[in-house]
UniProtKB/TrEMBL annotation:
The lineage of its organism: Bacteria, Pseudomonadati, Pseudomonadota, Alphaproteobacteria, Acetobacterales. This is Hsp20 family protein. It comes from the Bacteria. Signal peptide: none annotated. The keyword Zinc does not apply. The keyword DNA-binding does not apply. Belongs to the small heat shock protein (HSP20) family. Keywords: Stress response. Residues 8-119 form the SHSP domain.
Amino acid sequence: MAGNAANAQAMPSYPPYNIEKTAETDYALTMALAGFGPEDVEVLQEDNTLVIRGRVPESNREREWLHRGIATRAFERRFVLADHTEIDQAELRNGLLTIVVRQVVPEAARPRRIPIVTGPAGSVMAPAAMGAESCRRQVEAPHAA
């Protein structure tokens, strides 16, 4: 826990963001980007990393500010994504960038329920490690008394 707190202090805090679980496999990352337009923000998925970059809007460079309380500085935030993760969409509305992240686990990697069957009394099931031929011999061979 203490290590996480130290890492949190070392990481940049701009721009602020939230991560919300919206469904079993869906998440929403919402980042506060007041003053940024879609042309000022870039969202990339590089392998298992989500990269969000923002550059200072052109309109902010040309203004003469008397007080500037809303930060619009350049930034880059990186988020490590879990395996089998896709970025579904990104939307910038009312100063909030929302990125929908979906975890898509391939069928081969999903847990699979194995049905339990019952057989006739006295039947023997060979372990899966034994080959089919070995299993056949075990079942067909008369039992020594």
